[in-house]
Amino acid sequence: DNMKFSLGKSEGIKVKFVCSNEGESCGCIGDAFKNKLFKGTVGETFVGKNKHDDLVLYVGVGEEPTIEDYKFASYSAIKYLISKEFENANICIHESNLDYREMVLAAVEGAIHGNYIFDKFKTTKKDIEINEIGLILKQELDNIETDIDELVNKMDGVITARNLVNEPSMYLYPETLAKIAKETLEPLGVKVTVYDKAQIEEFGMTAFLSVGRGSAKEPKLIVMEYNDVSDNPIALVGKGLTYDSGGYSLKPSDGMKTMQSDMGGSASVIGAMQAIASNKLNANVVGIVAACENMVSGDSYKPGDLIYSMSGKTIEIDNADAEGRVTLADAVYFATDKYSPAKIVDLATLTGACVVALGEVYTGAITNDPLFLSNFLDSAKNEDECVWELPNDEKYKELNKSTVADIKNSGGRLGGAITAGQFVGEFLKNDIPWIHLDIAGTAFLGKSQKYLPAGGTGVMVKTLYNYVKNNG
């Protein structure tokens, strides 16, 4: 159910933002400051009464608040209200030295994050969620309702991505992922075509099929077309490993437990397509997902195998757990061959090496086009998503060299996030502007990080949306 936002007062408790340096001068909450019951740190909550004897939830935004601080404060307020079983609230947005429109939108976005919970498989569900929020503004803002609607649609895409990542692989596999993509996107005017194994074979996507061979679940190629894709669209390619056991390079049990999240790239692409289409952006975009499972059977691909790819290049399998890049080799080639995109972005929960380098905070990026990345980083900054460029240096490419095939699917431990990205880059049909995003650390969190939940985050949906909106 969607949270409803309206301008002006609704039923329910008032929420007020408080800076920590307002201190004792701050009306009714002054006593709480004086008695050290409330410090006004970012996200700190305190319930008191105002001079009209109304109940108010005060929430701290720190000393010199940023837009991010308002998002987190709004998130914390909603989390608190849900825990106390409130159903409605009014958020009062005061004026500060920040852009007022951005503050209003930060309060809305934070509230949506605060309302998110993945409890589909709990028998005792949280029956309370905040239904309606009144926004009490101090300034008249032109078109603010339109901006709020756009943000709500964008966040719906983020939530779709989160739910897909959180869904266990026993229920989410290539066929069901394709079905959800169709059900979500087709009503918004996106053309979704799902190719089966026989059709994938006809395309010559041998690398993709090799990875999926060990699974009883049939692979699917999911193609999502928005607007005129014959006219050099932006291509978004998401890694779609709905489960990754590591294959014959078997993962330890602990490493397998969260591997339903290995389709985080495809989730972000589907979520971004939803956001783009529901807001009717004027851009041509194609989303591509090669969905399969990497499992162990008598017919799985093996270390030492030499396999063909759609591009004609041969791949030496050095490690069966370096499978995502093998599926992307065909997906990226397919995208560049069939659609001649103006630009291409691939997203993948690709390497543990990226998590070691950047933790769960930054997404790693590699590009062949610094200007493209520079514009993309602006979009990430606008959306408060963290992306860090890794060097796409020729010297690393040596590590992927094979003595028996054209390329090897693992460059070894050192620089693993870079060599994995460079492997994918070898399968672009033409030298088109390309960005590779390694979201292994950021798509699925071990524990919550500010307003991002533990589990699926929907990372990069907002950045992709922002980029396509401003550059499509």
Sheet with most strands:
8 strands, mixed
- Unreliable residue runs: none
What is the number of helices?
A: 15
Q: Which strand order does the major sheet show?
A: 7-8-10-9-13-17-14-15
Structural class: alpha/beta
The CA-CA distance between the termini, in Å, is: 30 Å
- Give the averaged pLDDT, no decimals: 96
Strand runs, count: 19
Q: How much helix, percentage-wise, in residues?
A: 25-40%
- The radius of gyration is 24 Å
Strand content: 15-25%
Identify the overall geometry. Answer: elongated
Account of the protein in words:
By secondary structure, this protein is of the alpha/beta class. Helix content is 35%, strand content 21%. The chain is elongated, with a radius of gyration of 24 Å.
In short:
Helices cover 35% and strands 21% of the residues.
List strands and helices in order, with pairings:
Layout: E1 4-7, E2 13-18, H1 30-34, E3 45-49, E4 55-60, H2 67-83, E5 88-93, H3 100-114, E6 132-137, H4 144-166, H5 174-185, E7 191-195, H6 197-203, H7 206-212, E8 220-226, E9 234-244, H8 253-256, H9 264-278, E10 285-294, E11 306-308, E12 314-316, H10 324-339, E13 343-348, H11 352-358, E14 363-367, H12 370-382, E15 387-389, H13 394-397, E16 407-408, H14 416-425, E17 434-438, E18 444-445, E19 455-456, H15 461-471
Parallel strand pairs: 1-6, 2-4, 2-5, 5-6, 9-10, 9-13, 12-16, 13-17, 14-15
Antiparallel strand pairs: 3-4, 7-8, 8-10, 11-12, 14-17, 18-19
